Amino acid sequence: MPDSQRGHRVTAVPGSQHVRVEIAGRVVADSHRPVVVHETGLPVRYYLPPQDVDLTLFEPTDTHTTCPFKGIASYWTYLGDGEATRKQDVVWAYEEPLASVAAIKGHLSFYDTVADITVEGPEPEAPQG
After folding, report:
1. Domain containing 27 — which CATH number?
2. How many structural domains is the chain composed of?
3. Closest listed residue to residue 117, CA positions, set 23, 50, 36
4. Closest Cα partner for 46 from 60, 58, 30, 61?
5. Is residue 128 part of a domain?
6. Which residue from 34, 29, 44 is spatially nearest to 116, judged by alpha carbons?
7. Burial of 113 by CB count in 10 Å (0-12 exposed, 13-18 middle, 19+ buried)?
8. Which residue, 14, 43, 115, 126, could crosslink 110 as a Cys pair with Cβ 3.0–4.6 Å?
9. Is residue 84 in some structural domain?
10. Beta carbons within 8 Å of 61's beta carbon, 6+ residues apart
11. pLDDT, average across residues 50-64
């Protein structure tokens, strides 16, 4: 394992928080069953079941990235109400994540630089150990 990956941890645990996601003032996701992901050096991320995301507002793109800790991510673009509100590659998912984070399979997460993500409920604690 390269030195840059030593001590790096990723955990995915079921959450009970209420997560609401808006893009350009429009609610695009609302869930009470997120998977909470803690990853060394990154903010907590909420992965939402696809049933809780309005997928009619998105289209898949050809973008894929590889994370050595989660696998290969696929991306979607927010269609908005036309080119002015269209947002490229704002949501991603791991269709075949690594076994250590299998709970995120098919769940979607949003870039908080584009989407307004509101979380109600207990602050998620990073797993110990």
Report:
1. 2.170.150.40
2. 1
3. 23
4. 30
5. no
6. 29
7. exposed
8. 115
9. yes
10. 75, 76, 77, 88, 89
11. 97
Residue 46 lies in a domain: yes
3-state secondary structure the chain: CCHHHCCCCEEEEECCCEEEEEECCEEEEEECCCEEEEECCCCCEEEECHHHECHHHEEEEEEEEEECCCEEEEEEEECCCCCCCCEEEEEEEECCCCHHHHHHECCEEECCCCCEEEEECCCCCCCCC
Tell me the residue range of the domain where 69 lies: 9-119
The predicted model gives 28-47 an average pLDDT of 95
pLDDT band at 8 (very low <50, low <70, confident <90, very high): confident
Q: Does a structural domain hold residue 3? A: no
Please state the pTM of the whole predicted model.
Answer: 0.91
Which pair of tokens denotes residue 54?
Answer: 């309005």
Residue 4: pLDDT above 60? Answer: no
Lowest mean pLDDT among 5-9, 56-60, 76-80: 5-9
